[in-house]
Amino acid sequence: MRVWATLLVLLLLVPVVCQAQDPDWPEPAWRPLYTEAMTNEMVRRLIVGYEDFNVRPEQTCTRYEWAAVVSRLVWFFHLPLPVEERRPPDVPWQHWAEDATRVLVASGIYPGPPDTRFCGDKPLTRAQFAWMFTNLFRAVKGEGYLRHPMSDMEYLYTQAAEVLRAEDLMIGYPDGKMHLDKPMPRWQVCLAMSRLLVWSEQHLPQQHIDEP
Prior knowledge:
Strand content: under 5%
Helix content: 40-55%
Oligomer: single chain
Structural class: mainly alpha
Number of strands: 0
């Protein structure tokens, strides 16, 4: 298990990815939500900024960046990992998120056969986020993961999003829809993390979580 190495590497090596703002969330609408989320001290410790120490919340979160977030949350909540970890075949050995992708796969939050490509530079969609975040949420509660045939992924994504909406961990857009096909901005990841941490403080014994 290389979680500690993951944390050290991710604090030192942070990629710079330039992507567009989400046009459906004009800044005056999302900025207060993000600002409120970042008042949570645990979020500020678990989210790593860029080289200029700015989170750049309007930018789209990549799958590699999401793996980094999940690896910290797996450690934070003491989620079990198998003795043997597996690296996705398209993740280079020297990549800054290599350890994080191993943790994500080993935890079962991102299940898949050994030859599944991770495509870490691609934007994280709200559908992919909903699926993996729901699995993370269920693991924190000690429950099993959502399982469906890969041919039924659209239903799985929708089901996962509704789980998170019901728990107020993931919110829809101003039109009330979830828009699972859209990319996941970093501010929305911060918001979901903040809400999960608040939920854990209200529902979990404190010995089941740890200080980052």
